[in-house]
Amino acid sequence: MKSVRPSRSASYIGRFAPSPTGPLHLGSLVAAMASYLDAKAHHGTWLVRVEDLDRDRNVAGIDRHILASLQRCGMQWDGEVTWQTQRTHLYDVALEQLLAKGAAYPCSCSRKEIADSQLRLGQSGAGLVYPGTCRNGLAPGKPARAMRLRVPDAPNDTYCFDDRCVGVTCQRLAADVGDFVIRRADGFWAYQLAVVVDDAQQGVTDVVRGADLLDSTPRQLFLQDVLGLPHPEYLHVPVVANADGEKLSKQTGAQAFDTGADPETLVQSALIPAARFLGLDVQADSIAGFWLAAIPAWAAMLTP
Position of motif 'KMSKS' region (predicted)? Predict the structure, then answer.
């Protein structure tokens, strides 16, 4: 079992990493606010990275809309904004390292073939856990589709980490995930590889994001180990849900909170509701006043 709890020895560097698939809504504002507050409460650096690798889902111009909305809310990032599509050479290098170590391999399997393999193994209720079909090479005549990372076999596959909000969380990589994709069949880089490489290259010490990404963390920690990269600390905040209990997102009809009106109206319509969702009792009538109250409130909430 691998357990991770990094010590805070370096200056704090946090980040917000939106995908340009739609404008920011209340759920994404909560994630942005939590990461921003945590960076400011630690007198640290706050970066913004646009995760635009999934080009089929990107919406033209939304990246600039997101950046404008952050600024209208009074959240100013440090340094230059980065775009993942400008960083693919870094992912190429990481894949070469993994292949050289024998930690990655090509896979020819489609989702249907994986599901069919699970049925044969009597695992139809386990989700699409990869059964390792291509671990020892491709079948004759089968072309490579994706690249996968080889995870440890059970019983040495359990990975645990101590989340700053949720506490100790564990995942059995082989049983719950299997060898996971690091470059997709469509040629796009997978989130797991890109986020690990980016966080390390940018020196990120603390990742604050939504709890919907909690189960991705053990895979990222394992990948960090394979690549010899440092572990950030993690804090996963609750996600905002709609009336049906679904995560608020573009797919579930989430509406943009920023309509382009007077930015000061965002204090009551967006900033205070997001802060309350995070458990902060903040009263303010201006954007500047909001952050003057919210940053110490967050710091106080973090104090044991």
Answer: 247-251
